Amino acid sequence: MDFKRPHPINILESTTKYFFLLLLPLVRGFLTFRGGFYAWLSGAWFDLLILTAILMMGFLRWICTRYYFDEQGIYINHCFIINYRCYLPFDRLSMVYAEYPFYFRPFGAVRIKADTDGGYLHTTDFSVTLSRKEAARLFEASQAIVRSEENIKKIYHPPWFYVALLSLITSNTLTGVLFASTFVSQSGNLLGKEFEEMLMGRLTDLARVLAFGLPPAAALTAYVILGGWLISFLMNIIRHIKFNVIRQGKNLEIKTGVITTRYYSIQTTKINLIEIRQSLTTKLLGFFTVFIHCSGYGKQKNELSVLIPAADKYEARRNLNILLPEIPLVKKKYKPKLRTLSRFLIPPVTIMICVFLVFGLLYLFFPSLRLLFFFMGIMGEIPSVWWLFVKIASFFHTGIGKENGVYTLYYTYAYAFFTTSIPEHKISQVYCRQSLFQKMADCCDVIIFSYSEGKKRLVVPNIHVKEVNQIF
User: What is the pTM of this model?
Assistant: First the structure.
């Protein structure tokens, strides 16, 4: 076997985490130092020595990493400090992932990753950076075994509006805030703490100007949340623009992204379940977002395992029948009884009462901060009132259906509505959980675990016990 080494850019790639910690201060020190090159060198020699050592470690890792692939699978040999050898047969791969970051393009490099059902839970089983030519050959070889003789391609390409709707639904304020805070701190490392303090001061002043009569702390909190969500929304738009799916044989090829282009090759037999998610708003508007659960897909940072970004009911069913006819959606047959309605309403009503009592007492006992507590009380009641509406809709949404060896589970988690279809052979465990109050109503929570790399837990609440015994 003719083993090859990864692309040389892997030397920098494996040391980037530590490389930039030293490189940025060195560059900034060189640009701001006024004593001449030799004077700067005499003060920075130790940092340069460590930087050279880091690069040498990356070079040794690159020298000691080799790979080889043929029509059957890929071999990896890594002998740096610890000797590591691995063989991944292509027919066992659940997902092959090719990433083209914009900063790799001048070097003609591509990052390839692969995963199986029996590998690591939080990382892919295989990762290597190759040239474009080698990456294309590997990607083609991994797909050939599942494409077989099938020449018909079924293509799904959603309108840009649906991609925007996906970003609107899935944007996370925390992700945006973390991105913004990382940007501010790294700008401080590069341009100095004075710039970082000036930037934070200008943002604080802007929040005061735009407070519109609100307490400064409340206004700043609101703008941090709004700004974080907006940043996350833009990141999701950039990540999922030009999204499309191709079905050929038993293979799904998904392409997404414009700045960093990503390709996913997924074996349909390795898909454990499909999952439709809706918020209360999208449920009222009749829009569906479809995800799949498959080892490797959705494992990367800020990655979503999306199959259909958004669609109405007719489009979602039609496209699912084209892309994944093996896992159909089944109509509800078993639903919660009317006497279990209180089981849905008690949690949000309890939270609403608690929030009202807590901020009501704070309002009475701290007169000087009444405006702040009044604002916080309203902000605290909004999510609990919204959750009440979600729980009312959840009573009508919840249920279970079964047909031709496929279960479809209808349930809610937090503020989201889920419709999950899972083949019977992909279920690893089913059990019923029953509280004292549920015994009185003769109902239980059905908890299902899927067969997969990690545990996927699905909970359908308040189904009648006799019906659960009948369907399972």
Answer: 0.80
Q: Phi and psi of 98, rounded to 5°?
A: -120, 125
Query: What single-letter amino acid sits at 326?
Result: E
Q: How many CB atoms lie within 10 A of CB 308?
A: 24
In the beta sheet, which residues pair with residue 127? Answer: 113
**Whole-angstrom Cα distance, residue 300 to residue 291?**
15
Q: Which amino acid is at 55?
A: L
Q: At what angle do helices 216-240 and 193-209 cross, to 10 degrees?
A: 110
Identify the CA nearest to 142 among candidates 121, 122, 125, 123: 125
E-state strands within 249-396: 251-256, 261-267, 273-278, 287-293, 306-312
Rounded Cα distance, 54 and 51, in Å: 5
**Contact of 252 with 270, CB cutoff 8 Å:** no
Both structure tokens of 340: 């279990």
The type of residue at 379 is M
- Give 251's contacts (C-beta < 8 A, 6+ positions apart): 143, 146, 147, 265, 266, 267, 268
Q: For residues 66 and 78, what is the distance between their CA atoms, to the nearest angstrom?
A: 6
Residue 121's CB is within 10 A of a number of other CB atoms, namely 10
CA distance 111 to 261: 11
Q: Where are the beta strands (DSSP E) in 286-415?
A: 287-293, 306-312, 399-403, 406-413
- At residue 244, what is the residue type? N
Token pair, residue 70, equals 């043929």
What's the pLDDT tens digit per position in 133-189?
988 888 888 887 776 656 688 899 998 888 888 877 776 544 444 444 444 444 444
Indicate the pairing of strand 416-423 with strand 273-278.
antiparallel
Structure token digits, residue 167: 């970003």
Kindly report the length of the chain: 472
Amino acid at 181: S
Give, for 61, the enclosing helix (H) or strand (E).
helix 37-63
First-to-last alpha carbon distance for the chain, in angstroms, is 51
Cα(397)–Cα(298) distance, integer angstroms: 26
